[in-house]
Each structure stands twice: as structure tokens, then as C-alpha cells.
Amino acid sequence: MNDILKSEYSEQFDKERKARIETSYYKYGPARDNFATGRVDALATAELCIEAFKKDKNTEHLVDAANYLMFRYKYPMPDEFFKPTDSNGSVGTVGTPINLEKRLGVNA
Fold first, then answer.
1. Which of 40, 42, 50, 90 could form a Cys-Cys staple with 71, CB 3.0–4.6 A?
2. What are the φ/ψ torsions at residue 46 (nearest 5 degrees)?
3. Are 46 and 61 in contact (CB under 8 A)?
4. 95: left (phi > 0), else alpha (psi -120 to 50), else beta?
5. Is residue 65 part of a domain?
6. Per-position DSSP letters for 43-66, written without gaps between them
7. Range of the domain at 43
8. Residue 82 reports pLDDT greater than 80
9. What pLDDT score does 1 carry?
10. Would you say residue 64 lies in a domain?
11. How confident is the model over 45-71, as a mean pLDDT?
12. pLDDT at 15 over 60
């Protein structure tokens, strides 16, 4: 793993996600059957997980939300697509990233 990923990525997060996907397979059935058909709304369920995290601060909800978002990516609804964007197409951030602050010469 390169130096950037060592500090910027969480293998533990992926490990937690994968463990929950295996459990969910037996609990809820195959993801394709639930999400590709729209039987389960992955986006709305991810939002429920984020709201639960905001209330109880249990990061397991973030792992669950990530899985639901991954399922939405893997099984998109009609008219949904992946298209890489540049900075002009980005939604941006809430807050000022450190490198943007440095480029703008903003004092912390």
C-alpha cells in the first residue's frame, strides 16, 4: 500500500463493511434481489443510517450507510450513471480543506 493510502484510507472500515455484507446476505437475501429491483431503497436506507449515527454516534451506522451507498452504485436505478467530474462539477465541501486554505493564504 502506498504512503498516501496508509494515512488516508481505512482497511478496517472495509473489513467491517465486508463482514456486514456477508451477514446481510443470510439475513436479507442476495443484494441483487433487494437493490437491483428497487425492493429496498438503498439511498433512503443509507440516509436512515446517517441519521442514526447523528443521534447515537455509533460509527457502525456509518459502515452500514457506506454499504447501502455501495449497493446503490452497484445496482443503479434507471437514468442513474457514473460520470467523473472535475472541480467545476464537484459539490464541494462543508468547511475549508487545508490545501485550499493554503492556496488562498487564509490564516487559521
1. 42
2. -60, -40
3. no
4. left
5. yes
6. HHHHHHHHHHHHHH--THHHHHHH
7. 10-79
8. yes
9. 61
10. yes
11. 98
12. yes
- State pTM to two decimals: 0.88
- SS3 call for 37: coil
Does the residue 105 lie in any domain? Answer: no
Give the model's confidence band at 100: pLDDT under 50 very low, under 70 low, under 90 confident, else very high.
confident
How far apart are the C-alpha atoms of 69 and 61, rounded to whole Å? 12
Quick check: 108 pLDDT over 60? no
Q: What integer pLDDT is reported at residue 106 of this predicted model?
A: 64
**Residue that the C-alpha cell 473489513 belongs to:** 15
Length of the chain, please?
A: 108
Give the SS3 label for residue 36: helix
Asked, for residue 33, whether it belongs to a domain, the answer is: yes
Residue with cell 433487494: 34
| Number of structural domains in the chain | 1
Cell numbers at residue 97, please?
480543506
Helix (H, G, I), strand (E, B) or coil at 15: helix
